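Q: My labmate handed me this sequence with no annotations at all. I'd like to see what the chain might look like in three dimensions before we decide whether it's worth expressing. Could you predict it?
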Amino acid sequence: MGRDKRNEQRQPQFTKWIRAHRLLPAWKALSFPARDAYFHLRVRCFAEAKNSHNNNGEVYRSLRKLAEDMGCSVKTAGAALADLQAKGWIVCTNPWQRGTDGTGKTATFRLTMLPAGKREATREPERWAVGHDYPVTVYQTYLPKPRQGRARNLEIQNPPPHSGTPPCPIRAQLRAVQS
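A: Here is what I predict for the chain of 179 residues:
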């Protein structure tokens, strides 16, 4: 049995954890599943490259496979990808498609902090500001719904039972009973 020289030159799959990126407000605003999904996409950016560079701009992972890798549900993986898009860490280069023959195509992404071929890195997370998210083009339905104020929820959620008598005012004055 002969040696397989191709496997001897293969490097282990890893990705750098750059401290300057972790100090950005866009990184601190990410949810924990979004941070994990970013590293899964970044590893795939270098692991599936056909040449010695990366395949940035063509990074893909289906929601089911990403959820399996992360150990979470499909909805959590979709929310993580939507969160990454909103903060500018990834940009969709080709949206997902449903196939007419029963096979679909998953969305492809470009990681904005890495160069894509001859194109320089665009670095959108460095320009992100709180409350000014980037548009989410795919998996937008997985974004969590904004929460309403606490006082408004209490009024709608727990109405007092209707007994026919008006409710007692908060600062009701009690009269002294004379006997």
